[in-house]
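FW: tagging you since you asked about this chain on Friday. Here's the raw sequence from the shared folder, copied in full. Didn't touch anything.
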Amino acid sequence: MKQLSNGISKIEKYLAIILMFSMAVIVTVAVVFRYFLNSPLSWAGEVSVFLLIWISFIGGSLGLKYKSQASVTILTDYLPEKVQKALAVISHIFMLLFLVILLYFTYKWIFSPGVTFQKSSAMLLPMWIPYSAVPLGLTCAAIHLISNLLDLFRKETAQ
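HL: got it, structure written out here
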């Protein structure tokens, strides 16, 4: 599971770099066209929003991989090490359950007729493409979370 998580995170990093660079270029070109050429690009705002959504879900997944999500640990820092590990396992299980519930409803949503036939306003892009950032990002996040949970169990049995 660790190898799968590492492989996915490598793909996510490259994809995030490409998407962020693309968004920066599109926004810059849109500004140049709007203010210097007086010919605004109708599609640039829509594309940049879609790219930002994809970047957000990829970044959230990577945040779970590298355990860089925000947390307040003032109380848990004073607990014994065994209790800290037990709380870490419980929190990972709750996050995983939450992701599974969210994934169920997002896959159900993506495959619904309302999303399947919906088109974006400026580019007429099928909306399942930008919306698929949600289930894809959450699926990758669940894989990273399972990998981290298994690491917690391995560390516990090694001691």
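FW: Helices lie at 2-35, 44-65, 81-110, 113-116, 128-131, 133-158.
HL: agreed, and The two ends are 21 Å apart (CA to CA).
FW: great, closing this out.
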